[in-house]
Design a protein that fits this description.
This is NodB homology domain-containing protein. The chain has six helices and 15 strands. It is of the alpha/beta class and about 325 residues long. A four-stranded mixed beta sheet has the order 1-2-5-4. Strands 9-15-10 form a three-stranded antiparallel beta sheet. The radius of gyration is 21 Å and the shape is globular.
Length: about 325
């Protein structure tokens, strides 16, 4: 799903978070079999907010699940650090359902300061896109977004805080360096591609402060909707069919070309069927392969499928399939 309809290279799908955080020992063992690097399904209240750790000796927190003795050598656990509300009740993804924007900003600031002035564990910012998206009949999300931006700016002003992805965090933990040496680490360098036209890649390529303007597909299935730079699936994804066939066929009007294995997302023009990387510095080769496909038609609309959907087929936890459509954003303030 992420590869075929999100344009994420298979090799860059390294982590997993269980829908509704419903995971079992079988979930963790399956992640290892499928070659994932980390899981991030274990919630961490202030009392067990450990640094990320490997599962070589089992789970260190979230032991109420009854799987603390499960050892999965080589897999990392990046805990979801809770934000306690006024009553001390821990909040994770749904913090915006527990209070108004002003309260949430204060709770987040207090929780961050507990990490910053304590053991310096990473601090996660977890958001459901629906909390910051405007829908007819629902309150304007702008105050929530403004509060989030204000919080991020206040944290970013600190000279010893870095905003990193899970992958960057683990890169450092595997090979720690001094703060003065971080700027020289390749995994922390970030430079936007220089492209002379706007393509559908999630970036503002032409510098007009708009991202992918009028280039995305709106995929509406009645009960759920999402936008993508690629083709829409013919039906909503489910556990039994995690990567449905494409609604558009190769060669027909409006067809979007899938990401090839020799181009990275930021350089790929799915409408023009062109990789705009022209030098060795931006070349990319995805060596990962799909572990399963769904349907004989294939997600690409040409009889093939480039989806890494095996984890969705092999993990048998009882979850709401719609949760796979809710992509959560995780940003870590690295102290």
């Amino acid at each position: 799903m992420l590869n075929s309809y999100g344009g994420v290279p298979n090799g860059k799908i390294q982590g997993f978070r269980a829908p509704f955080l419903n995971y079992t020992a079988n979930t963790l063992n399956t992640l290892k079999k499928q070659g994932f690097t980390y899981d991030s399904s274990a919630s961490a209240i202030p009392g067990d907010a450990y640094w990320p750790y490997t599962l070589d000796y089992g789970m260190a927190n979230d032991c109420w699940t009854g799987i603390c003795g499960t050892k999965v050598p080589g897999i990392w656990e990046i805990p979801m650090y809770a934000v306690p509300d006024t009553g001390g009740i821990p909040q994770l993804m749904d913090v915006y359902m527990a209070g108004n924007p002003e309260e949430v900003t204060k709770w987040s600031t207090d929780a961050f300061n507990n990490h910053y002035n304590g053991k310096r564990q990473p601090f996660g910012i977890y958001i459901h896109p629906t909390h910051l998206t405007g829908y007819p009949g629902l309150p304007d999300p702008k105050p929530k977004l403004d509060g989030l931006i204000s919080f991020i700016k206040s944290v970013a002003d600190k000279p010893d805080v870095w905003f990193v992805t899970n992958q960057q965090l683990l890169q450092w933990m595997k090979n720690p360096v001094k703060a003065s040496e971080l700027k020289n680490q390749d995994y922390l360098k970030c430079q936007q591609p220089v492209i002379d036209k706007e393509i559908c890649n999630g970036l503002d390529d032409n510098g007009n402060n708009q991202v992918d303007e009028e280039l995305t597909n709106n995929c509406n299935f009645g009960t759920t909707t999402f936008k993508t730079c690629f083709n829409c699936p013919s039906t909503a994804p489910t556990l039994s069919t995690p990567v449905p066939p494409s609604s558009a066929k190769n060669g027909t009007s409006g067809y979007r070309y899938p990401l090839p294995d020799n181009c990275d997302t930021e350089w790929w023009d799915p409408i023009g069927n062109q990789c705009l990387c022209t030098s060795s510095t931006c070349q990319y080769k995805d060596t990962a392969v799909p572990v399963s496909s769904s349907g004989k038609d294939g997600a690409n609309g040409d009889g093939t499928s480039s989806a890494a959907g095996g984890i969705m087929n092999t993990v048998k936890d009882k979850v709401d399939t719609a949760a796979y459509l809710a992509i959560a954003t995780s940003i870590y303030a690295w102290l």
